[in-house]
Amino acid sequence: MATVPVTDATFDAEVRNSDIPVVVDFWAEWCGPCKQIGPALEELSEVYEGKVKIVKVNVDENPNSPSQMGVRGIPALFMFKDGQVVSNKVGAAPKAALTSWIEESI
């Protein structure tokens, strides 16, 4: 399962109402660090298929969701469990660090 694109309109359905934990990646096309972690998140979406959903929200196309979450810089990653934020992380990180963060959060 690849990462899932999410919009302001689908945010609640895909993230807050998910029956499994969700990693939300707030990103933009012009963001270099966002592009750096993109492939790692795609790989992790395969590794955690069925256990954790990884979604991407383009902040330029969907300004409401990042605003509600208080996103000030990207990439910004949020872990949701049972509709609530349980952890967040700002900035690029290597795949191993992202894996550790996901493991600690779930």
3D structure, described in words:
This protein is α/β, with parallel strands linked by helices. A hairpin with a 2-residue loop joins strand 4 and strand 5 (84-90). It is 37% helix and 25% strand. It starts with a strand and ends with a helix. The protein has helices at residues 11-16, 32-47, 64-69, 95-105; strands at 4-5, 22-27, 53-58, 76-81, 84-90.
Outline the low-pLDDT stretches: none
Major sheet = 5 strands, mixed
Number of helices, counting only DSSP H or I runs of 4 residues or more = 4
Strand content: 25-35%
Radius of gyration: 12 Å
Net shape = globular
* Strand line-up in the sheet with most strands: 1-3-2-4-5
Write down the overall mean pLDDT: 97
Task: Determine the N-to-C terminus distance.
Answer: 18 Å
Residues in helices, as a percent range: 25-40%
Count of DSSP strands: 5
Order of helices and strands: EHEHEHEEH
Helical/strand content category: alpha/beta
